[in-house]
């Protein structure tokens, strides 16, 4: 298996570590969604994911607009990010909140 696909598989295996019954209202939706589903790739920059906190990596993406970021998240970004970033059950609003959380902690 190539190294890139191995990293994607690792993200898939790590992404759903939370209990689906966890109370999403216990903390802000963006932080909770990020922690449960986005962190595993975005904290380490796995498979080309822009690292949370990397101002340069996020600046060019933010410049395209929040709607473009959300659409890319919903559709996925080949080759590394699958549709909805491994959170098939997340609503568009939850994904948007996670994007906002990453942006707030990156710029």
Structure description:
With 107 residues, this protein is mainly alpha-helical. It has a single domain, classed as Cytochrome c-like domain (Cytochrome Bc1 Complex, Chain D, domain 2). It has helices spanning 3-15, 29-42, 55-63, 66-75, 92-104. Helix 2 packs across helix 5 and helix 4 packs across helix 5. It starts with a helix and ends with a helix.
Please give the structural blueprint.
Layout: H1 3-15, H2 29-42, H3 55-63, H4 66-75, H5 92-104
Helix pairs in contact: 2-5, 4-5
Biggest sheet record? none
Q: Could you say what the CATH topology is called?
A: Cytochrome Bc1 Complex, Chain D, domain 2
The overall pLDDT, averaged over residues, is 81
Strand tally:
0
> What is the C-level CATH assignment?
Mainly Alpha
- The CATH architecture can be given as Orthogonal Bundle
- In what range is the share of β-strand residues? under 5%
SSE topology string: HHHHH
CATH superfamily: Cytochrome c-like domain
Described by the principal axes of the CA atoms, the overall outline is globular
Pick out the low-confidence regions.
Answer: 4-27
Please estimate the helix content.
55-70%
- Spatial separation of the terminal alpha carbons: 35 Å
Rg is 13 Å
What's this entry about, in short?
The protein has helices at 3-15, 29-42, 55-63, 66-75, 92-104. The chain has 107 residues and is an all-alpha fold.
Feature tags:
Cytochrome Bc1 Complex, Chain D, domain 2; 5 helices; 107 residues; mainly alpha
């Amino acid at each position: 298996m190539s190294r890139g696909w191995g990293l994607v598989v690792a993200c898939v295996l790590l992404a759903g570590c939370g209990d689906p019954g966890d109370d999403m209202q216990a903390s802000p939706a963006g932080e909770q969604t990020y922690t449960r589903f986005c962190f595993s790739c975005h904290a380490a920059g796995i498979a080309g994911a822009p690292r949370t906190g990397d101002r340069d990596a996020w600046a060019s993406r933010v410049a395209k607009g929040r709607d473009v970021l959300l659409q890319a998240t919903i559709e996925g970004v080949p080759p590394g990010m699958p549709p909805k970033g491994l959170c098939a059950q997340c609503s568009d609003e939850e994904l948007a909140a996670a994007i906002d959380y990453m942006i707030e902690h990156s710029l």
